[in-house]
Design a protein that fits this description.
The chain has 180 residues and is α/β, with parallel strands linked by helices. It is built from six helices and eight strands; from the N terminus they run βαβαβαβαβββαβα.
């Protein structure tokens, strides 16, 4: 049940996952692209056609984000994943993020072909990044559009200090030979 947080890779790269508020994906993807980043966005709801087009135009990736399950929240997991995976065009094997899944959610996602991912390092914009290592998944918890740019600048400085560059999580995992 442990999520993939880091992989062994011969490349000097990290995967970047953005947990973003719904409805702001297009603006966030645009900001990331303008700053030279190509990242992975975790989505709580099926994206609109415009959001999918914006993500693809900016060479961004999207993965489903399972909500906190609560007492009975797991009941909708199967339908929820089906809608998101269909909208994203993912096949039978996919990665997903979570805000704290239950065993039932994990089992539904696993049965659908999903494998969890999470940040080995989580950025919240407090300036406390620390040392980054090649192969890690870096998770940005972005509360709003305005907070993304300072976080990307902070991330760029940390990556530069370590001689690393950011890629979408799928690219990091593919380069490391990791499969969903």
């Amino acid at each position: 049940m442990k999520p993939v947080k880091a992989v062994e890779t011969p490349y000097r790269e990290v995967g970047v996952l953005i947990n973003a508020p719904g409805g702001q994906v297009q603006a966030l993807a645009s900001t990331a692209s303008e700053e030279g980043y190509h990242l992975t966005f975790s989505l709580e709801q099926a994206p609109s056609a415009a959001e999918i087009q914006a993500l693809r135009a900016d060479a961004e990736q999207a993965v489903p984000l399972l909500p906190s399950s609560g007492l009975v929240g797991w009941l909708g997991t199967r339908g929820y994943l089906h809608r998101l995976i269909s909208a994203l065009g993912d096949g039978h094997h996919f990665f997903y993020a979570s805000r704290g899944y239950s065993i039932a959610q994990y089992l539904f996602a696993h049965h659908a072909g999903g494998r969890p991912i999470a940040g080995a390092v989580r950025l919240t914009g407090d300036g406390q990044i620390g040392t980054l290592r090649a192969g890690e998944v870096i998770q940005l918890n972005v509360p709003n559009t305005e907070s993304l740019l300072p976080m990307l600048i902070e991330l760029r400085q940390a990556l530069s200090a370590e001689g690393l560059h950011a890629v979408p999580v799928a690219e990091l995992l593919r380069n490391a030979g990791t499969q969903a």
